[in-house]
Design brief:
This protein is an alpha+beta fold. The protein has two domains: 74 residues, RNA 2'-phosphotransferase, Tpt1/KptA family, N-terminal domain (Arc Repressor Mutant, subunit A, Orthogonal Bundle); 82 residues, ADP-ribosylation fold, CATH 3.20.170.30. It is 32% helix and 19% strand. The chain is built from six helices and nine strands; from the N terminus they run H-E-H-H-E-E-E-H-E-H-E-H-E-E-E. Strands 1-3-2 form a three-stranded antiparallel sheet. The protein is globular. GO terms for molecular function: transferase activity. It is an enzyme of class 2 (transferase). InterPro entries: Ptrans_KptA/Tpt1, RNA_2'-PTrans_C, RNA_2'-PTrans_KptA, RNA_2'-PTrans_N. Its EC number is 2.7.1.-.
Length: 182
Amino acid sequence: MDERRTIKVSKCLSKHLRHQPELIGLTLDEGGWVEIDTLMAAAAAHGFRFTRDELDHVVTTNDKRRFAVEGTRIRASQGHSVEVDLGLPPATPPAHLYHGTVARHLDAIRAEGLRPMNRHDVHLSPDRETATRVGARHGRPIVLTVDTAAMHRDGHVFRVSANGVWLTEAVPPRYLRFPAPH
């Protein structure tokens, strides 16, 4: 499968498993799962056909492991703007996690910290490299360091998704370290 097709199928899955399942008549269960056959039929009925091999290729080759397959069901690993309960248990984070962003967001982040915006949780990366890639999707990346040890000590809850993304409700500004300006 060529890269353009892979991206197209991945974007379709993200849109309908994370944000707008109703656009193609899908109903996700409380955990965000839907039957693969139901998803494929709904997408086809709305003008976008893909094969099971294409779906499997997207699931297995996605570098961010955005999707999880369990038996005959599929779901997005995290990043939902629709109401789901991923059933992830609280977890003890490493001492530091990272968040990739761009300069135009820094003033708001300094004032308000990291907020989930249209998602359920703030997404944090386990390493600087991943955070850099995340930030680079929106421009020149800036990586913030999050003092997750202090947050955890202060009672903030963390969960980790199947693909290694750390999730928390919000990150107040006092737990953030900003890089020195250049």
